[in-house]
Amino acid sequence: xxxxxxxxxxxxxxxxxxxxxxxxxxxxxxxxxxxxxxxxxxxxxxxxxxxxxxxxxxxxxxxxxxxxxxxxxxxxxxxxxxxxxxxxxxxxxxxxxxxxxxxxxxxxxxxxxxxxxxxxxxxxxxxxxxxxxxxxxxxxxxxxxxxxxxxxxxxxxxxxxxxxxxxxxxxxxxxxxxxxxxxxxxxxxxxxxxxxxxxxxxxxxxxxxxxxxxxxxxxxxxxxxxxxxxxxxxxxxxxxxxxxxxxxxxxxxxxxxxxxxxxxxxxxxxxxxxxxxxxxxxxxxxxxxxxxxxxxxxxxxxxxxxxxxxxxxxxxxxxxxxxxxxxxxxxxxxxxxxxxxxxxxxxxxxxxxxxxxxxxxxxxxxxxxxxx
Length: 372
Known about the structure:
Structural class: alpha/beta
Strand content: 15-25%
Oligomer: single chain
Order of helices and strands: HEHHEHHEHEHEEEEHEHEHEEEEHEHHHE
Largest sheet: 8 strands, mixed
CATH topology of the domain at 57-171 and 228-368: Rossmann fold
CATH class of the domain at 57-171 and 228-368: Alpha Beta
Shape: globular
Number of strands: 16
Number of helices: 14
């Protein structure tokens, strides 16, 4: 089993030190992904791309960032480029999307580029180091901040907060329905199996129950689901720091009625390692990504509570088409099929036609405030 033994030891000690000898699944996921020493996202390793565990839209041909840059340029032009504005990327990973956006803005929208400050908020020291190297040509345009620093400097005006595949990796409560009520998943050590195991011994906490009451009307007996309280909390916290601007969320997920339908009886939890996908979060602790689908219904409501209105909610495919991806296609009938233009066209087709990204990924744009 490809697991991080140091992380396993830490999990076992944490479980042993609790009176009930269990921890919530949410805490288990948080340790696996974000433990400062051994968490999956905190270690120096390739996670994205051919040598990593999964691909993101930004890792396919560089086209995603160009289209996002076009959207940003159009938005800033509507605001007017005579005043400074900020683009804040939350959880930018390797900096691939940031580089694509900044390169395209500099190349095609120089007036917007000159008015724009780019702020990167990244919890992983390993990712911050990679970003600093990858974005060295734009160093004078970028500031690295912690989330606390950024929040303390609000209220921000003329700001776009961008997240790409961020919220799906927030730690979630794992819940099972019994007798019409949600029971909280707790992780303990199974002596017989010699490994971690999940059980559902008691009713979930009030916040989880409220979430299930709000979004889980059709849940069946025994059905499992993930409750991502942190995603809505993040949006409300970010919203409180914004005076005027937008939040652009790109992630995989759907509305609540789809996420919690009967055909999702086992939930949406997925794990990725070396481009292999499976649903067992206990298989490779510390060495695999753990994710769940985002409830966009919850994000829309949380945004409204924070003073946002929904500007757009659509599939990633439609967002790309609406913002000019087809204009990036090039005529390659007479050229080398392995030329940069041909590779670029293949990347565009992959983004538009791949079931994994074109329809499953959604784009939510929420706006707030009057520009001054």
